[in-house]
Amino acid sequence: MADLILWRHANASYAAQSDMERKLSEIGKKEAKKMAKFLQKNLLKNNLGNYKILTSEATRTKQTAKRLDEDYTPCKELNVGSSASDILEFIKWKEPLKEGSKAIVLVGHEPFLSEIVTRELFKQKEGINQAISFETASIVWLKSDTLGEVSLKLAITPSSL
Questions:
Q1: Which of 3, 67, 104, 159 qualifies as a FRET site for 52, CA 20 to 30 Å off?
Q2: How far is residue 49 from each of residues 15, 40, 46, 63, 105, measured CA to CA in Å?
Q3: Which is it for the CA torsion 11, 14, 15, 18, positive or negative?
Q4: For residues 34 and 22, what is the distance between their CA atoms, to the nearest angstrom?
Q5: For residue 16, is it within any domain?
Q6: pTM of the model
Q7: Is residue 34 part of a domain?
């Protein structure tokens, strides 16, 4: 069994020289803090205290992840423009996780987060309309059983907390 927690970066300001340098807005900082608190509580409640956080190299994803834990790994494979299939191949979340981790928390971007959920839950390939879309700071928690079947554990937005 494996857990994949998809977390869209929190609200970001557009005042930056490049998209990769965009920082969290004041609203985004509050969203990220609220969702991190929710995740901390629920990771422990589900006995998933040992998790691995992966982010894109964008400032806003790293700032979002930092609200949960200082220990995160930025990965160019998760940058804006990445495809769901490439990301799923990179993270290999259904395989036994290394280093004793029990879950992967992936802090990323649209549209690949929606595409991952669509592919994993509905067995649809890319290019098909996504069944969901993530608002900023939203979380979708997927669980894979020993046969590789994926189920939705939860989906939550900052406004629903």
A1: 159
A2: 36, 8, 8, 21, 12
A3: positive
A4: 20
A5: yes
A6: 0.93
A7: yes
- Tell me the two tokens of residue 44: 């422990």
Determine, yes or no, domain membership for 129.
yes
CATH number, position 63: 3.40.50.1240
Residue 161 resides in a domain: no
Range of the domain at 53: 3-156
Please list the pLDDT of the chain residue by residue as tens digits (161 residues).
689 999 999 999 998 899 999 999 999 999 999 999 999 999 988 888 889 999 999 999 999 999 999 999 999 999 999 999 999 999 988 776 666 678 999 999 999 999 999 899 887 665 556 567 899 999 999 999 888 889 999 999 999 99
Question: Are 103 and 48 spatial neighbours (Cβ–Cβ below 8 Å)?
Answer: yes
Rounded-to-10 torsion of CA 57, 60, 65, 71? 40
DSSP state of 127: T
Structural contact between residues 142 and 91, judged by C-beta atoms closer than 8 angstroms: no
In the chain, how many domains are there? 1
Edge-first strand listing for the sheet containing 2-8: 73-74, 51-55, 103-108, 2-8, 139-144, 150-156
**CA nearest neighbour of 42 among 132, 149, 136, 153:** 153
